[in-house]
Specification:
Helix content is 44%, strand content 13%. By secondary structure, it is α/β, with parallel strands linked by helices. The protein has three domains: 109 residues, no CATH class; 180 residues, 3-Layer(aba) Sandwich (Rossmann fold); 38 residues, no CATH class. It has a six-stranded mixed sheet with strand order 6-5-4-7-8-9. The protein has a three-stranded antiparallel sheet with strand order 1-3-2. Helix 8 packs parallel to helix 10, helix 10 crosses helix 11 and helix 12 runs parallel beside helix 14.
Length: 376
């Protein structure tokens, strides 16, 4: 039961029925073999493929590691550049917070070995927070990241409209000039300039299992954009898609971002399910594009692009979407890997039709996205 609580604290959703099923299965499977224990707990507690890696890491740390507390404390310390013998798999730091919730208040354990790490450069808490991956954030880091996003200010690019307004420079307004001359009897030129408005934004967020945590943080980003445009000068439309396309623009208009995102998750039936990217883009192009893309909107497409269906159809729908909007910006969390290469068929089909291909995995990438939206 302690292990199940650790899995809950690290991000997995476990009901009491699964814990009871595991307690009933362990006497049957036996506790003599570590492999049998792992297989039994996997069958009872893991219900989504994307949770397998997190479960394996938690199982390794919880059941075997003799220096568990030392490793957990090391994961909480700032990262520094050191000499490593070989590559190590990425660990989810939410496990540290779940195993030892009060570890940050305790002194680190004594070291019995001489270390060879050269700590010549340290990072502030804010810099570490901005570079932390959304998928491996601790609970406290996740809460602080949401607060930072709520305080961010984003300047969306403005475009000229057909209407004009009074100005001290620009083209001459002959009508007002002649009226002023008739009224005052003096020559005083009046000017007009085109009126500008913010570019409308359309956000399409993938909420499949591999994207759910990133999409949840990006929904907070969308709520911050909507809150700053609450005066009516900025038009923002938000859609989520997994196995179907759902409009959540009205749900994100709540004042509290946590309540707004929670209402979205509750209202959407296919959250953390599979993805049908081609079908959802087809649905958007057929039923929504004429409504929300009529005024040169910028589209933010948030997905990893891992589509296993008809890639030719996916390429056609992506090209159709790109031709219907002012700018198509693809936010892909897979760009967090330094050696990323577009080898997947879905990514190769979509990539030629996007205007910008940017990462979306930490606060630094969201700050860079703000500069993209401002036209820089």
């Amino acid at each position: 039961m302690h292990f199940a609580r650790v899995l809950r604290g690290s991000g997995m959703s476990l009901g009491s029925d699964r814990i009871r099923l595991a307690l009933e299965a362990l006497p049957i499977a036996g506790l003599e073999s570590r492999d049998d224990l792992h297989a039994a707990l996997t069958a009872c507690l893991v219900d989504r493929p994307e949770h397998q890696l997190l479960f394996d890491q938690a199982f390794h740390l919880f059941w075997r590691d003799p220096d568990l507390r030392g490793r957990m404390m090391a994961m909480l310390l700032p990262r520094v550049q050191g000499r490593e013998s070989g590559p190590k798999p990425a660990q989810n730091r939410r496990l540290a917070a779940a195993l030892f919730p009060n570890a940050s208040d305790q002194p680190p354990p004594p070291e019995y070995e001489e270390t060879t790490i050269e700590a010549t450069l340290t990072f502030s808490d804010r810099e570490r927070l901005f570079k932390a991956d959304f998928d491996t954030m601790t609970v406290d880091e996740w809460r602080e990241a949401k607060r930072v996003i709520a305080t961010m200010r984003f300047n969306v690019e403005r475009i000229a409209t057909r209407r004009s307004q009074r100005s001290t420079r620009g083209r001459i307004d002959w009508r007002r000039t002649m009226q002023a001359m008739a009224r005052d009897g003096a020559m005083a030129l009046r000017h007009r300039e085109p009126r500008t408005r913010p570019v409308p934004l359309v956000i399409l967020a993938d909420i499949s299992g591999s994207m759910s945590r990133y999409s949840r943080m990006l929904l907070h980003f969308a709520h911050a954009l909507s809150a700053q445009g609450s005066d009516g000068t900025r038009r923002i439309s938000v859609f989520v898609f997994g196995t179907r396309l759902t409009s959540i623009t009205r749900a994100l208009r709540g004042r509290d971002p946590d309540l707004a995102v929670a209402s979205v998750i509750k209202a959407v039936d296919d959250w953390s399910s599979g993805t049908r990217l081609t079908a959802c883009l087809t649905d958007f192009n057929a039923h929504w594009s004429r409504r929300v893309l009529a005024q040169s909107a910028t589209v933010l497409l948030i997905t990893d692009g891992l589509e296993h269906g008809d890639v030719q159809r996916l390429s056609f729908e992506t090209e159709r979407l790109a031709k219907s909007c002012r700018q198509l910006v693809w936010l892909n969390p897979l760009l967090r890997y330094a050696g990323f290469e577009p080898r997947a068929a879905g990514i190769r089909a979509m990539l030629p039709h996007v205007d910008r291909f940017v990462p979306a995995h930490n606060l630094d990438s969201l700050a860079a996205l703000g500069r993209v939206l401002s036209g820089v």
